[in-house]
From TrEMBL, chain A:
One Gene Ontology cellular component: cytoplasm
Origin species: Turnera subulata
Localization per record: Cytoplasm
Name of the protein: TBC1 domain family member 15
Keyword match Transcription regulation: no
Automatic annotation (TrEMBL), chain B:
Primary location group: membrane
Top-level taxon of origin: Eukaryota
Region (Disordered) location: 182-206
Keyword set includes Zinc-finger: no
Protein source organism: Turnera subulata
Similarity comment: Belongs to the small GTPase superfamily. Rab family.
Membrane topology (UniProt): Lipid-anchor
A single GO molecular function term of this UniProt record: GTP binding
Function: Protein transport. Probably involved in vesicular traffic.
Chain intervals with Polar residues compositional bias: 195-206
The name this protein goes by in its record: Ras-related protein Rab7
Protein localization: Cell membrane
UniProt cross-references to PANTHER family, sorted A to Z: RAB FAMILY, RAS-RELATED PROTEIN RAB-7A
Gene: RAB7
Gene Ontology cellular component list: plasma membrane; vacuolar membrane
Length: 689, 206
């Protein structure tokens, strides 16, 4: 067996060259430069394709893009793909070695690849998304120097690839099944991972190769003795760290800042601030609460734990640690609590802050200038994030949160907008209203769409007084708006779950046209949830799996071992943002918190993590399989206490920091689709394969 | 583990949105009907203990979202199914026309080892509506289709008043049991059909 070293390229001359090149200039136009150094590749492995300046975009900030080299390597009959980010790239100075490790693709065999989707936007760089048979996908790979066509052509030479009948931009790898099969979306079972032919590919593929922490052991155990691949793999892993430890360091660093800040400040305020609700005691008691409550929640858990030992929650350990240190700081310095709340806030808290009362009219007025502009939208978002909005004020505030109103619009402009948008709404509405029954008879799509909407509106929140009773005009309005939307966005049409979103919006806005436009704004971001190919759902569930991996690796490992990595048990949570999990009022509270996009656009995913972590003892302790877990999650509906969950989610989001953000691929809803500001610089060279 | 596995019979209910999948499941398991069910998002299941002779089985009945767009989720939910129930609304032609698609989609996604002989049961639901006056799919038409697909057992039901629901699910359970790879040398020959109404069904050949 060859001494392969396909993934650990740190001592590879070729890799070193790429580092140099990378640091010289990211945008330097070079392509196919890897071939000359193929002699440095392990014996028996041949680089059949190499492309520089292929990048991933972990965030929407161009400065955080990570460029690297994409290669296809042929060894025997197998084709592997690697993507190694450059080291020491100027623009990436902020990114740590671990950020790179998180994304590095180390020798994934094409036997584990299900499909490759090519995107060639009119503006911006072309990119591909590689989807594994496990259903997981790598983040989009952007080809700064083109070469997508060559990439696909090379794969075609060495692996079995067919073009999807459904979508000319989807290339199915190893697809020997019927054409019907090919029409299935890329949502797939992680069960496929179990059918991977050998331990080697299992250890190397399925995305976990990018991860770190406890998986080291798992990976090692699975691939033990199978080949030198796995050993190298393990070696590589040593460079990455235990997420819990890392997070502790991360948090402790921040903590030390706080402590330093505390020491630098005089102690006069200690007693005054003692009881103000934001003092150390409050935080302490919360930390207790968050650590203890999940255990107390179910008394029989204790004995269950005897049967199935539950690995400790890394974040709990962290909180314990910090809690200890907190006391220490208080006793040694006596000044921990004196920090002004606003100052402290900047230094990052690990505990979620106590919820504040909702934003009321008087306070709202202070956010507006005399013409009605929101002066400091960030301050407003933050205020709403921590307390929500008084119900009577929602009608005024939600259009901002949803993006229907601009924060710097004036009262007059909003009134004008309302009038013009009403006319526009009526125009779209007339499009379907003018369809006669004769015409409808010959318009199957319309009839079906209308039928679906008719069926759903009469079973949307009917137990809620606003929609109850026979011939309720609000139910009709719900139908009219959805039908009009299905004409306004004919491609997206109507999908179940939309009525769940619209119902509270209509209840809040109390106006047909205004509700419609708020709903349109919401669908700008969440429309992908309802896409035919379910891509938006796929990417969110994938991001969720990465966040759990980051924030609770034992739980992630548990899901992995139990074939639960598809996270379909969270499907309902994500699709309609917990609408079915909380009562009507609580749902509205949660939504306005999520819609602020304060801290993260993806707070809803942190909410998922927070709920899962609350019940991790039960899930692992009772050894739930996929079915049991799905049932358990479905039955949590109506039993989740919202406020502590929001606080947990906030804490988790802060804990995860930029690692969390980097775990979420760009374009994951509700992020807007990836667009590149330098797009016009790129001349598209790839034609259809 | 092996014995526990044998005791569980997994049944999937498929059909267009609004044909009454959730209602049928609830009527059978809880003997309740509500007209306030919400559209199913994702999937859910209920279980019911059933007894054949002296053996106890757990029937796990999966209720899924009816909109085509969510079909790709099926892969996760259909696997290991022992029987598939196809439901249509006798008052909606489209829901009947969709049966073929649901059947094929199920076979693709569940990929059972022997698709030719995988047990299906068809239910024509909502026969109570408007005293049967709004009916558009005749019993004959439905039975013809069932016959053409390898004699699929057919039942006409009303989830609302519970008509024929018990009988249909007994047949479903029996077919699911037949599909289970059984280690025992013989299958139970007789089935407790208490209260089974067969007059409006082509039924199980038992």
């Amino acid at each position: 067996m060859q001494e392969t070293d396909l993934h650990d390229l740190s001592d590879d001359a070729d890799y070193a060259a790429s580092i140099q090149q990378g640091s010289a200039s990211v945008m330097m136009t070079r392509s196919g430069s890897g071939k000359q150094s193929s002699s440095s590749e392990p014996e028996g492995a041949e680089i059949v394709y190499s492309k520089d300046n292929v990048a991933i975009h972990p965030t929407q900030f161009a400065s955080e893009n990570i460029a690297g080299r994409l290669k296809l390597i042929k060894q025997g009959n197998s084709l592997f793909m690697t993507w190694i980010p450059y080291k020491g790239q100027n623009s990436n100075a902020r990114l740590s070695e671990r950020d790179r490790n998180l994304y590095t693709i180390r020798a994934v065999p094409f036997s584990d690849v299900r499909s490759i989707r090519r995107h060639t936007p009119a503006f911006g760089w072309p990119y591909v998304i590689v989807v594994l048979s496990s259903g997981l996908a790598y983040p989009p790979l952007y080809f700064y120097n083109g070469g997508v066509k060559e990439f696909l052509a090379t794969i075609k030479q060495h692996a079995f690839v067919v073009r999807s009948l459904e979508d000319a931009n989807v290339f199915l790898v190893n697809d020997f099944q019927s054409p019907l099969q090919r029409t299935l979306s890329s949502l797939e079972l992680p069960g496929a991972a179990a059918s991977v032919p050998n331990g080697l590919s299992l250890a190397l593929s399925s995305n976990e190769s990018q991860s770190y922490g406890n998986l080291d052991r798992t990976g090692g155990a699975i691939s033990d003795g199978t080949s030198s691949f796995s050993q190298n793999h393990g070696r590589q892993r040593h460079k990455s760290n235990d997420p819990a430890r890392d997070l502790s360091i991360h948090v402790l660093e921040k903590f030390s800042l706080v402590t330093k800040f505390a020491r630098d400040t005089t102690s006069q305020l200690f007693r005054e601030n003692h009881g103000n609700g934001f003092g150390g005691l409050e935080r302490k008691s919360y930390s207790h609460e968050s650590v203890d409550i999940p255990r107390k929640a179910s008394k029989d858990e204790e004995k269950i734990i005897d049967e199935h030992p539950v690995p400790p929650d890394p974040i709990e350990k962290l909180l314990d640690k910090k809690h200890d240190l907190g006391e220490e700081a208080a006793t040694n310095v006596g000044t921990f609590e004196l920090i002004n709340f606003k100052e402290f806030d900047k230094k990052t808290l690990v505990w979620g802050k106590p919820r504040q009362p909702p934003l009321g009219y008087e306070e709202w007025a202070t956010f507006l200038d005399f013409e009605g502009r929101v002066v400091d939208s960030n301050a407003l978002k933050k205020r709403i994030f921590y307390g929500g909005v008084d119900h009577t004020l929602r009608k005024e505030v939600w259009p901002f949160l949803l993006g229907y109103h601009d924060y710097d619009s004036t009262y007059a402009e909003r009134e004008y907008l309302k009038a013009t948008k009403k006319l526009e709404y009526e125009t779209v509405k007339r499009q379907w209203q003018s369809i006669s029954s004769e015409q409808a008879r010959r318009f199957t799509k319309f009839r079906e769409r209308k039928g679906l909407i008719d069926k759903d509106v009469v079973r949307t929140d009917r137990s809620f007084s606003f929609f109850d009773g026979d011939d309720n005009p609000n139910v009709n309005m719900l139908r009219d708006i959805l039908l009009t939307f299905s004409f306004y966005n004919f491609d997206l049409g109507y999908c179940q779950g939309m009525s769940d979103f619209l119902s509270p919006i209509l209840y809040v806005m109390e106006d047909e046209s205004e509700s419609f436009w708020c709903f349109v704004a919401l669908m700008e971001r969440l429309g992908p949830n309802f896409n035919r190919d379910q891509n938006g759902m796929h990417s969110q569930l994938f991001a969720l799996s990465k966040l759990v991996e980051l924030l609770d690796s034992p739980l992630h490992n548990y899901f992995k071992q139990n074939d639960c990595l598809n996270y379909f048990f969270c499907f309902r949570w994500v699709l309609i943002q917990f609408k079915r999990e909380f009562d009507y009022d609580k749902t509205m509270c949660l939504w306005e918190v999520l819609w602020t996009h304060y801290l993260s656009e993806h707070m809803h995913l942190y909410v998922c993590v927070a709920i899962l972590k609350r019940y991790r003892h039960k899930i692992i302790g009772e050894n739930m399989d996929f079915d049991t877990l799905l049932k358990f999650i479905n039955e949590l509906s109506g039993h989740i206490d919202l406020d502590p969950i929001i606080r947990d989610a906030e804490a988790l989001c802060i804990c995860a920091g930029e690692h969390g953000a980097a775990s979420i691929p760009p374009g994951t809803p509700p992020s807007l689709p990836v667009e590149n500001e330098n797009g016009s610089l790129y001349v598209q060279e790839d034609e259809v394969l | 583990m092996a014995s526990r596995r044998r005791m569980l019979l997994k049944v999937i209910i498929l059909g267009d949105s609004g044909v009454g999948k959730t209602s049928l499941m609830n009527q059978y398991v809880n003997r309740k009907f509500s007209n306030q069910y919400k559209a199913t998002i994702g999937a859910d299941f209920l279980t019911k203990e059933v007894q054949f002779d002296d053996r106890l089985f757990t029937l796990q009945i999966w209720d899924t979202a009816g909109q085509e767009r969510f079909q790709s989720l099926g892969v996760a939910f259909y696997r290991g199914a022992d029987c598939c129930v196809l439901v249509y609304d006798v008052n909606v032609m489209k829901s009947f026309d969709s049966l073929n698609n649901w059947r094929e989609e199920f076979l693709i996604q569940a990929s059972p080892p022997d698709p030719e002989n995988f047990p299906f049961v068809v239910l024509g639901n909502k026969i109570d509506v408007d005293g049967g006056n709004s009916r558009v799919v005749s019993e004959k038409k439905a039975k013809t289709w069932c016959a053409s697909k390898g004699n699929i057992p057919y039942f006409e039901t009303s989830a609302k008043d519970g008509f024929n629901v018990e009988a249909a699910f007994e047949c479903i359970a029996k077919n699911a049991l037949k599909n289970e790879p059984e280690e025992d040398p013989y299958l139970p020959e007789t089935i407790d059909m208490t209260g089974g109404q067969q007059q409006r069904s082509s039924g199980c050949e038992c």
